[in-house]
Design a protein that fits this description.
CATH superfamily: Carbon-nitrogen hydrolase
Low-confidence stretches: 291-295
Largest sheet: 12 strands, mixed
Order of helices and strands: EHEHHEEEEHEEHEEHEEEEEH
Mean pLDDT: 90
Structural class: alpha/beta
Length: about 300
């Protein structure tokens, strides 16, 4: 069966801001979403941690718990602003991500809004690094795609892009595009992107979009190049890259060739997947993890 057509994608690379008022946050989101929509975008992806720009200055990732205590108004301003922008611009909007306080600890959440301003999905980062655990972050317990007019989309938040099974589970559920609001530490160099989302696009023969945060936020410095990836045979020079930004703020708008599947001749990986093995092994592994018995 042919893959459903993909949306016209916009990937927004942004420099970090701090201490934004709700009005300033909404204006920033609206200005970038409007530019993307005027260039034909149907789905607009922003970088990770965008909701943290609403926190008052002086916080750090190492003290996120106290910084987020009693910040229900920050979460509400983030959600309300994103809903109004999605509705005003008539686009599907993934407004980056937000770290939220829950009874079990902090969670890293990504949202997708409809053009009517409704929340279509909230997804949580599942795999948590040792550094993130020190912040107080805890992982979610579900890896589920989001239904869109273009088929299923899947979020990869934070270190989820470093775990191949995350994208594989989403792909086995019919996901055709991976969405990654990203914030890569500058000190790590380019490897998190090469060994992360680019690799997953190739390994699962899907398209993937990565929006990067740059600059300093919460005592950490982030960098990277926002990009849209695709299966290597369906991209120029078999590079696996459809578009990539420079280091500065940018908006990439990409129209994926609706006949891209016809170009996949040599590397038909989906036909080689042992779905039965995944079905036997992965659900019990993640059930153990949910009970605290796994990494």
């Amino acid at each position: 069966m042919p893959a459903p057509a993909l949306p016209v994608l916009a990937v927004v690379q942004l420099a970090a801001r701090t201490s934004l008022s709700p009005a300033e946050f909404e204006h920033l989101l609206a200005a970038k979403a409007r530019q993307a929509r005027e260039r034909g975008a149907e789905l607009v992806l922003f970088p990770a941690y965008l909701g943290l720009t609403l926190l008052a200055g002086g916080w750090s990732f190492d003290s996120l718990g106290p910084a987020l205590a009693g910040t229900g108004a920050v979460r509400q301003a983030y959600l309300d602003g994103a809903a109004r922008v999605a509705r005003a611009e008539g686009v599907y909007l993934a407004p980056g991500s937000l770290i939220e306080a829950e009874p079990a600890g902090l969670v890293h959440a990504g949202y997708l809004f409809s053009p009517a301003g409704e929340i279509l999905a909230r997804r949580l980062q599942v795999h948590v690094s040792p550094a993130e655990r020190r912040w107080g972050l805890v992982g979610g317990d579900a890896i589920d795609p989001v239904r869109t007019p273009w088929g299923k989309a899947g979020f990869l938040l934070g270190t989820d892009a470093c775990y191949p099974e995350t994208a594989r589970i989403l792909t086995l559920q019919g996901t055709g595009i991976l969405l990654a609001p990203a914030a890569h530490p500058v000190a790590a160099g380019p490897w998190p992107q090469i060994a992360g989302l680019w690799r997953e696009a190739q390994a699962n023969q899907v398209h993937a979009a990565e929006a990067c945060l740059t600059g300093e936020l919460g005592g950490r410095v982030f960098g990277g190049h926002s990009a849209v990836y695709g299966p290597n045979e369906a991209t120029p020079g078999e590079s696996g890259v459809l578009a990539r930004s420079g280091p500065e703020e940018d908006i990439l708008v990409v129209r994926v060739d609706p006949r891209w599947e016809e170009k996949i001749v040599r590397y038909r990986v989906l036909e080689l997947m042992e779905a039965g093995v995944y079905a036997r092994q992965l659900p019990p592994a993640y059930a153990r993890r949910g009970r605290g018995e796994g990494p």
